[in-house]
Structure formats: C-alpha cells, structure tokens
Amino acid sequence: MEHTVVDIQNAVVSYREDIALRGVSLKVTDGEFVGIIGPNGAGKTTILTTVNGMGKLLSGRVCVLDHYLKPGNGHYLRRKVGYVAQIQNIEPRMPITVREVVMIGRYGILGLLKRPGKNDWKIVDEVLELVGMAHLVDRPIGHLSGGEQQRVAIARCLAQEPQIFLLDEPTASLDWKAQSDVLQLVKLIHNSRHLTTLFVTHDLGALPLACSRVVLMKDGLIWAHGSPDEMLTDDNLSKIYDIPIHEVKRRREEAAKV
Amino acid sequence: MQNAILSAFLGGIACSTIGVFVVLLHMPFIGVCMAHAAFAGALLGLLLNFDPLIGAFVLSLVSAAIIGPLADRGELNPETSVGVIFSLMLGLAFLFMGLMSTTKSGALELLWGSILTNTRSDIVLLGIVAAVVVILVLIFYKEIQATLFNRNIALSVGIPSTLILYGILFMTGATITASLRSIGGLLIFSLILNPAAAAYQLTYSMKRMFLLSAAFGVISGWIGLLFSYIFNIPSGATIVVTSSIIFGLAALFSPKKRVKSWQAPPITEAKNG
Q1: Which pLDDT tens digit goes with each residue over A230-248?
Q2: Residue A32 covered by a domain
Q3: CA distances from A116 to A104, A105, A254, B252 (A)
Q4: Considering only CB atoms, which residues of chain A are within 8 Å of chain B?
Q5: How many interface pairs between A and B have CB atoms less than 8 angstroms apart?
Q6: Which of A52, A63, B197, B260 lies at a 20 to 30 A Cα distance from A2?
C-alpha cells in the first residue's frame, strides 16, 4: 500500500524577514523521487527545510513520517531525514577526517552520551565504499575537491540510515564530470534503497532522469506538478523562468548537444 | 611555589581546552571580552559590597549567555557579537569605577592576577572549573566535535547544536573567570590562544588537538615559572613568552605546510585519526 511520508498542507513559511512559501501543499509517497525545479528565490530550499523541521512554519500543517511539526520538535525528526546542502566552505586545516565526518551522520541517531561502536564504523565504511570514497577515508575533509566533498556529504546522509533523502542543489558549482558522478550516485542510491528522495535544483541539466515526478515552483508557490514529460515542456519552462520560448528552445538544444 | 605549579597545571588545562573551541570557532577575542566582563562584575561587587568573585562570575556568565543568541538573532558573525559585548563590559567597568570613591585595588588585582600569590581557595576554584570543563568535553565529545565542524550539518543530523554552542560559550565564561585571579586577564589571552593555535598547526585529529593543546598549556606554565624563578623576573611575562615560542616552533615545523613528495604515501599525518 502506498504510504504518504510527507504531507504539507497550505504551509506558509518565512525565511528571514520574507515569506518564502505562500501556502504550499505537497504530498510525497514512500519511495517517490521528486525533482523540484524553479528559479532562484522560488522557495525550493525552504520546502526542504520545512520537511526536516528547520524552517519557520507560520501557518498550515506539516506532517513528516507521521510526525506533526511544531517549533522546536524537529530534532527527533531530523535523525530520520538526510540532508545534503550545496557545497560548504570547509577550512583546509579543519582537524577532522573523511571517516569522522561521515560518522557525524550517526551522531543524531546514537543520541547523547553514546559512543560510536564497531557496528557504526562498519556502516560508515560501507557507505564510503558505496560512494567511491573508500581510498580517501583518512584524508582531512578540507583537502578534498568539491565533487569529493559532495560524495562525502551523501555518504554522511546514508550513514544516518534516513527514511527521507533531501538534496539541495548538490551539484551546484561542480564541474561536468563531478556533476554527472553525483547524479549517477543519487540515482543508484534511489534505485537500490528505494529511499524517498526530494531533489532541488535550478538547473535542468542537473535533474536526474530517475525523477518519478517533477514539481515546478515560482514565487513561493507550486506552479504545477506531474510527470517529467508533462512538466518539462518549453512552454512551462519559459513561464517559470520568465524567458522567451525561443530562448528556452535554443538553450535546451545546446544542452542536448553536450 | 607549590601553589603556583598547581595553578599553572590546572589553568593550563582549562584554558587551553577552551582554546580549541576558540580557535575552531574563530572567536579569539572572546578571551578579552570575558576577562573584562569579569572585571566589571568584580567592580560591581566592590561597589555594592558583595564578594567581587561572585560579581565576576555573574557578569561573565551573563555575557556568555548573551553572545550566542545576539549573534543568532542578528545573523551576526559571532566575533561581532563578542565585540559589542566587550565594549559594553568595558563601559560598565569604567562606569562602576567612576561611581566608586574607595580604592580599586581589589578589582585591579583580579584583572592582572598573580600566579605566585595564589591562595588555596583560588586553586580549589580553578580545580573545580578545570574538572568540569574536561568532564563535559569527554561526555559530549561527539556533539562538540560535530558543532565545531559545522553547526548546520550538526543541526541537520539531529544534534541540538545551538544548545551545544551556547554551552561552549558558557564554559568559556566560567573558565576565564575562575582563572582570572590566578592567571590574570592578559596572561589568560595567551594561555587560551597560543597552545590551541600551536596544536592546530600540528594535527588533523580533533582529539589530538585537545590533548596537544592541554599539554602545551601546562608546559608553557611550568617552563615559564621555572624561568621566572631562575632569573627572578615576572612569571606572567615568562609564561606568555614561552607559549608564544611554542606556537612559533609549531608554525615553523608544521607538517601542514610541507608539500608531499611524489614518493611519499599520501599525508602520513592524517593516519593519526
């Protein structure tokens, strides 16, 4: 039976002094792969922070994994929700290794006063193997390239053994090769673990082919949603990005050539 | 002398443990800020006739409690928030001094400190604070490690990292106040910063950074006392100079600056983790 894991009803959410979501409703069922697309400032990131309880909900209801979100009760939920953000600035000399960073993913579910045991390290090594970083486990995290850091971030999320996987522009500011590697990895993880995944991007080229549904966002509202083929038409894209239709066509043709 | 050796040991451990937080959170001036908050609190105690030490604790803990939320609410860099509180505390200190008609020597003693004239009670206080800091770091090591690495990531995996950060600031305030009479406001700045900054040069493991920092703190204190005894010069100055020399050596010989040779295995240093 299909089970709803994310149920957002008419949510109004603020980001700093602005209203980032103006009454958004979205249901996601177990195992779905939802791509969320829209221009900068459309509220895409805020939708993700609403799901993991880090956003400021002004009105509406948010129910994630049968857990109603209220201000301050997100810690428990966040242990079950993996979140990969855009590349973070990490000091090159930060005294922490790749393996230790991935272990941080398990700290929440371990809870206070508990130390990581053998089993935790085993899980960490397995996910590092899965993301192809097993050869860099003892490196200081700050020494890795952007693409490698994003794979480590994905490994950190998997170490958390989450029930929902949130990706916020994970491929932004990566080169082509690193972008496609990260996208392949996300697809692989979704296919092998059937993890409910929400993937946010402003870049069509970075939308993984694994999407079962696409949500188009603009100005803090969900503009439309449906299957990728229905949604990703030149007409729709021209409307949400405010660029003329011939320009959309030209850009997509160019992207297709690459 | 026995008291001085013990003070240097306890103060070295407490201050240089706090130093690791301070270096990794990029807020070096929290040391000066807390020292002046304690100074203003001590003056308030003298002014209103209660124990200056209690005044010092209260004002530095109040500052610690304000710095975090102030930075978060205003989305300020924590160091800016430290600056705002520092200037306020300096202003309050001047205000209390202006209101006072009697001698200010009691409060000034607190700011300058003197490791050679420590009493038993100073040492007991220092011992308690050092023990509390070390125990808290041991108990909450993984939460502290995650928060120092990246607050948002720590938050997103379900760690109450805001609470942990405020706790770290609180420990900083308590340590500085407790060490103030033994070590003095100026010396404390170098004992917080130099050992931790030296340790930062030498390792990619946070555990080792804590241990090295504490070791450097204690060694600086002891070598400083030794030179002060031999040459009959002020101990504060010799301790500051010793800790600076240790930092200088660490920076000079830091493996983090060495370029890997193509034959060498990749970064042997990292295997320490």
Answers
A1: 888 888 888 888 888 888 8
A2: yes
A3: 10, 11, 49, 36
A4: 16, 52, 54, 75-79, 83, 85, 88, 90, 93-97, 99-101, 104-105, 107-110, 112-113, 115-116, 138-140, 143, 156, 160
A5: 90
A6: A52
ipTM of the complex: 0.89
**Structural domain that includes position A242:** 1-73+200-258
| Domain CATH number, residue A29 | 3.40.50.300
> CB within 8 A of B230, min separation 6: which ones?
none
CB-based contact A104 B271, cutoff 8 Å: no
Name the nearest CA neighbour of B153 among A100, A203, A73: A100
pLDDT tens for residues B61-70? 999 999 988 8
Alpha-carbon gap, residue B260 to B14, rounded angstroms? 35
Q: Which domains does chain B have, with CATH numbers?
A: 2-183 (1.10.3470.10)
In a domain, A219, yes or no: yes
Q: Is residue A94 part of a domain?
A: no
End-to-end CA distance of chain B: 38
Q: Give a yes or no: residue A37 inside a domain.
A: yes
- Is the pTM value of this prediction over 0.90? no
